[in-house]
Specification:
DNA-3-methyladenine glycosylase 1; mainly alpha; 194 residues; EC 3.2.2.20; two-stranded parallel ribbon; globular; Endonuclease III, domain 1; hydrolase; metal-binding; glycosidase
């Protein structure tokens, strides 16, 4: 289906939500190497588990404010008072377990940064820095491997489906549907995930 601007987009993009259209056109699938952005997307994808991405995206500004602009150092140091404030914040998703997981995941994120030099180096090492082109899936051998490793490191809400969506969001996977004006840009098939 062609949109009013003449472009064809992935079927999941909501034409009635300008924020969602901008996300599809400008962010989703664009390779990310900035650790702050990688942390933000990881936390947001964890909150998305069991919900729609559109719901999370619509609350993104409130999440940024509530979670100190996704500074992993600050999030890792949250006290019980801060967690209680988050659980009472109507602007975000107030799931107690997911809020606690954000703190746990911040700790693990910082440990990965220490080990690899950056979280970017960690997440991109799985594909030797290459973008993988895959469509029509919700998990893969790659997301299975990363999910297993992140769980081993103590992260929560990082099942293979969440990690697959995360890899799509940060551009490790290029998953724009055939026909979408953004399909197959700068991506290649790459299938070694050891």
């Amino acid at each position: 289906m062609k949109w009013a601007d003449g472009k064809i987009r992935c079927c999941w993009a909501n034409p009635r939500n300008e924020r969602y259209i901008r996300y599809h056109d400008e962010e989703w699938g664009v390779p990310v190497h900035d650790d702050r952005k990688l942390f933000e997307m990881l936390i947001l994808e964890c909150f998305q588990a069991g919900l729609s991405w559109e719901c999370v995206l619509n609350k993104r500004d409130a999440f940024r404010k509530a979670f100190d602009n996704f500074d992993p150092e600050k999030v890792s140091a949250y006290t019980e008072d801060k967690l209680e404030a988050l659980r009472s914040n109507p602007g975000i998703i107030r799931n107690r377990l997911k809020i606690q997981a954000a703190v746990t995941n911040a700790w693990a994120f910082l440990e990965i940064q220490k080990e690899y030099g950056s979280f970017s180096d960690y997440i991109w090492h799985w594909t030797d820095g290459k973008v993988v082109c895959e469509t029509g899936r919700t998990s893969s051998e790659l997301s299975d491997c990363i999910s297993k490793d992140l769980k081993k490191r103590g992260m929560k809400f990082v099942g293979t489906t969440v990690i697959y969506a995360y890899l799509q969001a940060v551009g490790v996977l290029s998953s724009h549907e055939q026909g979408c004006f953004l399909a197959n840009q700068e991506a290649e098939h790459y299938n070694s995930y050891s």
